Amino acid sequence: MSRFLRGRLAALLVGTFALVGLAALPAQAGTSGASGVNRYLSDVNLNGYCRNTFTPAGGPEATSVQSSGSASGWSCYANGTYTPLSITDACRYQFAELVSRGFLVTEDPNNTSVTDRSCFGVINTRLERGGMDLAGYCKSLQGGYTGAYNSGGNVDSWYCDGPADARLDLNSACKWQNQSYVASGYVLAAAYANYGAWNRIGCIAMA
To answer: Residue span of the signal peptide, if any (predicted)?
Structure first.
């Protein structure tokens, strides 16, 4: 099967969840998480955090690796250097917009699994918004993109397919697909049960 056909199939698999809950109009979001509840947000993308935070200038992309030398059990690795990784810092990076609005975001306080780490946030509301039309999002961008494809079987390996392929920003795709919720003051972000759930990524609206 060609990469184009694989990409079309993958984008359709993700898009099958996109019809869930699209009919209702959003209520206006609240603005404070001070009285919220500590809720599950999503699994954390450690590889994306390492790549975007610890990749040296002109060097190879940093990756996340299990590391006994780190309190969290994980480090970012690049150019022979291991940098201990904070799961909470990775969660705050992944949900940066939520943090910028004053909401508390941390790693799962009860998580005992080294390999499966997740993010929690003290928020008032967490609404499931279904899946994403990744192909449609890519086509909406400038650059002549014709669709979306996944190259690695994980949530961090989605790309827009075009003359010059580009890594796909899942949070931006959620905002594009849920503009009425953005206008109502909600924070939109991608959510998934684990790093390998490449075809089961959904959007959540938080306030």
So the answer is: 1-29
